[in-house]
Specification:
26 strands; 11 helices; 20% helix; 4-stranded antiparallel sheet
């Protein structure tokens, strides 16, 4: 519960937008009022959280309505929120004023402390659609890590090998001409988008910052050194090899004590780090309207244009990308491919088809360690490593999706459903004053009845009574999971008729029946039998 919006609360969460950081410390979501909200995961609870209004102190911020470039950031059901590996940055896919999809990055501060909202920078121009964000590393960074591991820890300045150095995304900025005719003849074909997109990469660090973080970057600068770029880097690679040989020779003569001294350098070892340290992003100066930083992105030319749906992830130990694509045979049929990178400095990429169709869901686990693939009713869980995906075809680690079960405690589920329905009416009833009803008191009055509900029909009855307090004909309870025939839900949700007119009698210490409505001869027939009020049985008579 986010609290009433009219009181400055956070409203209702759009569940399809909820994102949790890989470190598990932060989460973000969009609410039904369009706000984008980031919060820390509360560790402890205090007091009564029956209505979700007495949680322990939660570190929470509401993102502004616009980014630095004054483009709106309004959350809706299609908003995509993606945390960086360390949880410091949040990539936000949202619509610009011209309705094109753009990507902004919000700096939320280090995860070891409280949320500290910094800059919110738009990192793609609004002239094209940019979508399907994945945090990863450039191809050259894998080569840098490999060579840097041969150096002393002091030479690498504690750079985290898990931090992202690049932002991968899809974009439809390549316009192709389709058709050979137009209203002006064959010499003026009409330009239009053909539904294809390409993979683009945005480097997150400047060359200067890369060298400061890891001096090996001075020798390996090109993102992909294939083609002519390889010739340019030959001398640099030779120099790097000579330096590594010199380091190996020197290290063999060093005393063990020196190694201990070196180990106490700037940063702890990778094994000692309890969390991933995000690589600081080299944003340009504030309020940059030239998009200098955004326009450092480049297209991966070795991956051809295609009808890509999403980039699932980059492998953890290899620059290869896992991508979902629409098949040519059927519009809504999806296939899964691995675009495998050849070892640096080559820029070649081979497409390895994993599934040619039938893909239902592909996603990564929250910590990013596994890829979950649901195809034709079967669930496959694959570690996000090159070795596992190379043996993908022979891997028999498949779980039948119909064999998965969820443990549900109906009594608690009913209370949650009751609280949600009460909250929705509180936040989105047409009258902000709720017809002057004490809505908190209504919640407390009917909650004991909910705790006694034994099935969904009884819960619906209580929710109708609660909604009836507003005296509004447009408040109804429909649908739900019921046992029995499918049409039973219509019987359960049938509008009730008055059974009798009752009057409180203090003398008789109860209620007296004043009137029993007679049925309309043209209505209230069920199974060819007339329906009367239950109180119209012959054993009951009008009082007085």
């Amino acid at each position: 519960s986010g609290g009433s919006t009219k009181d400055g609360g956070l409203g209702s969460i759009r569940p399809e937008t909820v994102a949790v950081s890989p470190c598990g410390r932060r989460f973000a979501y969009a609410n039904t009022d369009g706000q984008l909200i980031v919060a820390t995961v509360p560790i402890n609870f205090k007091g009564n959280n029956r209505r979700g209004r007495h949680l322990a102190s939660v570190d929470l911020i509401v993102l502004p309505w616009e980014n630095e470039q004054s483009q709106p950031m309004i959350g809706h059901r299609d908003t995509d929120l993606v945390f960086s590996p360390g949880g410091r940055y949040l990539a936000i896919e949202h619509a610009a004023r011209n309705t094109f999809k753009v990507i902004s990055i919000a700096d939320l501060g280090a995860t070891v402390g409280s949320l500290q909202l910094g800059r919110i920078v738009q990192v793609t121009p609004d002239r094209f659609n940019s979508f399907s964000v994945v945090w990863g590393r450039e191809s050259k960074d894998f080569a840098v890590d490999e060579h840097a591991s041969k150096l002393k820890p002091s030479k690498t300045y504690g750079a985290s090998r898990d931090g992202a150095t690049a932002l991968f995304f899809l974009s439809d900025r390549d316009i192709n001409l389709e058709g050979d005719t137009s209203p002006w003849g064959t010499r003026a074909p009409t330009p239009r988008f053909d539904g294809h997109s390409c993979v683009h990469v945005l480097p997150l660090r400047s060359l200067k910052d890369s060298i400061e973080a890891n001096e090996v970057s001075a020798f390996i600068q090109a993102s992909f050194a294939g083609g002519g770029a390889s010739e340019v880097l030959v001398e640099g690679m030779k120099e790097l090899d000579l330096m590594l040989k010199a380091v190996d020779a020197a290290s063999s003569n060093e005393d063990e004590l020196d190694d201990d001294d070196i180990g106490s350098s700037n940063a702890t070892s990778e094994e000692e780090q309890p969390y991933v340290m995000d690589t600081p992003i080299s944003f340009e100066k504030e309020m940059d309207t030239s998009f200098k930083f955004a326009r450092t992105s480049y297209r991966l030319d070795s991956i051809p244009a295609g009808k890509y749906v999403k980039i699932v992830c980059q492998l953890s130990d290899d620059p290869s990308l896992l991508i979902v694509t629409k098949t040519a045979q059927k519009y809504d049929d999806l296939k899964l491919s691995l675009f495998a990178s050849i070892d640096y400095p080559s820029d070649r990429i081979n497409e390895v088809s994993l599934y040619d169709g039938g893909i239902e869901v592909v996603d990564t686990s929250t910590d990013g360690a596994y890829v979950l693939i649901l195809v034709s009713g079967e669930l496959q869980v694959v570690p996000r490593t090159a070795t596992k995906f190379l043996s993908f075809a022979s891997d028999k680690n498949i779980a039948a999706a119909d064999g998965l079960y969820v443990s549900v405690w109906p009594a608690l589920e009913y209370q949650q459903m009751y609280a949600d329905s009460w909250r929705l009416l509180r936040d989105y009833f047409y009258d902000a004053e709720l017809h002057q009803i004490e809505w908190d008191e209504v919640f407390d009055r009917y909650l004991p009845l909910v705790e006694r509900c034994g099935n969904r029909e009884e819960l619906d009855d209580v929710m109708r009574q609660m909604g009836g307090e507003l005296s509004a004909l447009h408040v109804v309870v429909m649908g739900g999971e019921y046992d029995g025939h499918a049409s039973f839900s219509f019987i359960v949700n049938e509008i009730a008729s008055l059974g009798a007119t009752l009057r409180r009698s203090t003398e008789m210490n109860g209620y007296e029946i004043v009137e029993i409505p007679e049925r309309d001869p043209d209505f209230h027939m069920r199974d060819r039998q007339p329906m009367y009020s239950p109180l119209s049985e012959q054993v009951l008579h009008l009082s007085g």
